Amino acid sequence: MAQKASEQLVDVLIDWHVKHVYGLPGDSIDTTVDALRKQQDQIGFVQVRHEEVASLAAAAEAKLTGKLGVCLSIGGPGAIHMLNGLYDAKMDHVPVLALLGQVDTQFLNEEYFQEVNTPQLFADVAVYNKLISATDNLAEIVDEAIRTAYEKHGVAVLTIPDNLPEQRVSDHYISSASSFQLTSPQIDDNRLNTAAKLIRDSKKPLALVGLGAKKAGSQVAAFLEQNHIPFISTLPAKGIIGDNHPNSLGNVGKLGTKPAYEAMQNTDLLLMFGTNYPYTAYLPKPGTAKSIQINTSASAIGKRYPADVGLVADIKDVIKQLNSSETTILHPDDGFLKACQENVANWNRWMTGKRELDSKPVAPEALFNDINETAPLNTIYSIDVGTATSWSARFLNVSPTQKFILSSYLGTMGCALPGAIAAKINYPDRPVISVNGDGAFAMVMQDFITAVKYKLPLINIVLNNSKLAFIEYEQQAAGQLNYQIDLQDMDYAKFADAAGGVGITAKTSEEFKNALNRAYRVQNMPVLINAYVSDDAPLPGKIVGQEAKGYMKFGSQYLKEEKKIPELPPLKDILRQFF
């Protein structure tokens, strides 16, 4: 019996083991939604309240699972809403398929109601971007779109006029899912030998571990241990090896640690494992250190820092061959590692004092320490953009048994709640904690009710300081006076209760600890902790020259206009970041 084209489309998704589709139904996509309804025992349709949340959740699912994330919406306004989440997927290089509705073919190009040129609109975000113009090859195009999303680690967008999936097709389509396989490039032996020699000859080797090492965390850790090499994690790679590993120097950059910054300035060999780290100001000065770069993407080699050896290969394969080609340890000298560890120990003594702060409102450092000490070892963290990112980078110790996601390259506010929803749907037996600033949460808060609808017992923490705090510090670092950063406070706990979840307000450290302990015990519904936090400055691990000039300019302008000195962090904290 002939199938509808929409039914073939869904069959292809099933072949590719798609388990969830995030979105909202509507007139120009309803034929596809109806086909999903008929297969709801195999694919779950997750109804969200805003299409941006659908695309952010699909991107988060891809980050967490390594599998294709799928979202859909009507054409026109719904499609436009999805752009932000799709750019998040593009910039974090994860595979996502977006199915967009469109007006019926007979109305195309007539400026019909809600007609938007989505192929043109999505041209920059997509690695595959097609307007469906016929029924017979719809399944084939869907199959090709998914392959391309996997091959190019990006977003595939299909615009589907709603009258086409309704039509029947006689031919049975067999997808390529079962035969699809990504292959690793072959390792160049000469380059491998040169890399080994560079490691042997180095005095101060340092590794920068990126998200590309996600599937090789234990192998990279063992290699660094046996060769006495300290390492720095990029923020997206947090937890791949483990923040408490004895060779760890933390993160580097504005959100990083001072020991990481200082190690970068002193290394003579930088090993870059699966990273395209963009903040070149925090890398060694070109010419001061040699570099070995391992990445499956050839375009990333040498992009941020000159590469003496570039290996376009799987990290596991490189480490295996480096180990098998040597009868002795490549780098037996532990002098640089021990110096870095002593530096980290001094840093951690200062961090310990911050973790123990007891204030009203709650000190963010202490709040994250409470999460750190109580979160189970299989927790999934979904972290929003802003001060939530700053504090989690420095005070949340993530282990390899946990997961940590954020919007790392797009840096879009409002990513944490959609990420938490995707995490709990894909890993129902694991604890999920999202941390959001009040500004970020307000952008997507309507979808807290999505977590209520699907009975998702996740913990959603709102850092409430009634301001856009990270932007406050950005303005100051740029030498600008603060403007339009204050937010109107609202009772987020009452909102959570009204939505059908559990809302708890915490204004002291003790209240937050109690709220967190209560939240862990709640089942079948989400919890929102409205945590009033102090407006502490998340100072960079190292204040570099341009930032120092900016802070000085801000201070002088503030004194001139306000006739008083601005409130500043404790002097000892500021001095520690400078020297």
TrEMBL record:
Keywords: Pyruvate, Thiamine pyrophosphate. Residues 192-322 form the Thiamine pyrophosphate enzyme central domain. InterPro entries: DHS-like_NAD/FAD-binding_dom (IPR029035), POXB-like (IPR047211), THDP-binding (IPR029061), Thiamin_PyroP_enz_cen_dom (IPR012000), Thiamin_PyroP_enz_TPP-bd_dom (IPR012001), TPP-bd_CS (IPR000399), TPP_enzyme_TPP-bd (IPR011766), TPP_POXB-like (IPR047212). Residues 4-117 form the Thiamine pyrophosphate enzyme N-terminal TPP-binding domain. It comes from the Bacteria. Transmembrane segments: none annotated. Gene3D superfamilies: 3.40.50.970, TPP-binding domain. GO terms for molecular function: catalytic activity; magnesium ion binding; thiamine pyrophosphate binding. Residues 384-530 form the Thiamine pyrophosphate enzyme TPP-binding domain. Belongs to the TPP enzyme family. This is Pyruvate oxidase. It comes from Lentilactobacillus kefiri (Lactobacillus kefiri).
